[in-house]
Amino acid sequence: MFDVSSRADLYGPGNGYNVLTARDASYALATMDLKTDKTGIQGLTDEQRETLNGWAKKFLEKYPVVGILDQSP
If exposure means fewest CB atoms within 10 Å of the residue's CB, which of 28, 31, 32, 34 is most exposed? Predict the structure, then answer.
């Protein structure tokens, strides 16, 4: 989990990327589908996993990590 509070202009209420906050947005980022309710990485293609890894690298450069989601069933 990333702390994106420094970019309320993007992630705050009423802003475009607010749909990515307070949830596991892995699936949305991997598929570039901001309207999906799906979470996690199950069912992603190799290409989508690469896309997600690219986003993770970008987020790591910009935002502090504040937690890790447990993906166990």
Answer: 32
